[in-house]
Amino acid sequence: xxxxxxxxxxxxxxxxxxxxxxxxxxxxxxxxxxxxxxxxxxxxxxxxxxxxxxxxxxxxxxxxxxxxxxxxxxxxxxxxxxxxxxxxxxxxxxxxxxxxxxxxxxxxxxxxxxxxxxxxxxxxxxxxxxxxxxxxxxxxxxxxxxxxxxxxxxxxxxxxxxxxxxxxxxxxxxxxxxxxxxxxxxxxxxxxxxxxxxxxxxxxxxxxxxxxxxxxxxxxxxxxxxxxxxxxxxxxxxxxxxxxxxxxxxxxxxxxxxxxxxxxxxxxxxxxxxxxxxxxxxxxxxxxxxxxxxxxxxxxxxxxxxxxxxxxxxxxxxxxxxxxxxxxxxxxxxxxxxxxxxxxxxxxxxxxxxxxxxxxxxxxxxxxxxxxxxxxxxxxxxxxxxxxxxxxxxxxxxxxxxxxxxxxxxxxxxxxxxxxxxxxxxxxxxxx
Length: 432
Ligand code: SF4
Description:
Among the domains are: 90-236, Sulfite Reductase Hemoprotein, domain 1 (2-Layer Sandwich); 328-432, Sulfite Reductase Hemoprotein, domain 1, CATH 3.30.413. The longest helix is centred in the middle third of the chain and has 15 residues, at 176-190. The strands form 4 sheets. It has a 5-stranded antiparallel beta sheet with strand order 1-2-5-4-13. The protein is globular and about 65 Å long. Residues 223-230 and 357-362 have low confidence and may be disordered. The protein is α+β, with helices and mostly antiparallel strands and 432 residues long. The protein has helices spanning 30-43, 65-75, 107-118, 176-190, 210-223, 233-236, 277-286, 309-318, 348-356, 418-430, and strands spanning 11-13, 16-21, 27-29, 48-50, 56-61, 90-92, 132-135, 148-152, 157-162, 165-172, 255-258, 264-269, 274-275, 290-294, 298-304, 332-334, 377-380, 394-399, 402-407, 410-415. It binds iron/sulfur cluster. Iron/sulfur cluster binds at residues 335-337, 341, 343-344, 380-382, 384-386. The site of iron/sulfur cluster has 12 residues, from loops.
């Protein structure tokens, strides 16, 4: 049984109901943010959490509060289809169409994907963990372990990726969403049972889907040669050079990013992904029209007029958001811990917050890669290490009587002194 929470069926945690609200492409209007801030305060514990898929979670819901929550989300346009509540997991390059880096503006494709997904009853059966991604060619979300993804190519086509691997299929941009949906449908029809949640779990691997996807696309074309796919199948389904799927980007954009229209995007990391009421209020006050949520537990405020940039940055850093790409607080994550998880041995988020600290200064540095060697640090309330980022990381794991700090699986500290724990983690993440 798929226990992944949604906004209709919530997870019962130790601190109350947990609702996960899907935000396709991470695009949240300012009005939606204001509405969610109010709902979190009224129905939950006031806090909103950013997830690693650019979605949002409300916690501390009273029993039954999800009924009112889902009704009000629907009224605000945040739940366009109840049956598809958990199926709308869509990542997209957050800066697409704004900073001139990618080769395709994927924003219209996000809207098309969400609309067509919600219009297909069969796709309501997608597991809550199934993930779509639309990468505009810069390689930022193609490596985020999506089940099905398109990576824009410089020749007006997209490469279809399945389970993070190049399928060999190339599609014109206008067929990108059709390719994604055909892949999702093929997965549902091929999976052995409902406990298979990810494309990577298919017995013969993700590329098992290629013949089905190809057949679905050709059939779509054959029905109407001038129809939505258009063109010659040999020209677009045919391969071409293999694309190398980018590695997972562990950090995402942070800092001031110049847009091609002369305006500025402010990209901020949200410590531990915690959007408190005051942070939400600041974001809503500073946002021009929308706030973009990123899979790196960050936010992007696009379209800021240059004269307003410094004041906006001051307000964001004043709320504890991180705008400095060199901040040592970047890359610190934590599981739920106490009081939300019954297995937790410590309030890891409180303990990790001290390690995360606060950003200094108010100037907005340009976004750049200033530190390619600092490892992420993940705090866990028990040995399960939920939410740990994939790949090399420093682990801070609660155990009876304190914490253990591990690097590459080797313990470098064990004890109850929080100051020493933090110092050991800081040392371990920066030493190679
Ligand atoms: S790592 Fe342990 S304490 Fe943390 S959320 Fe998972 S089960 Fe709970």
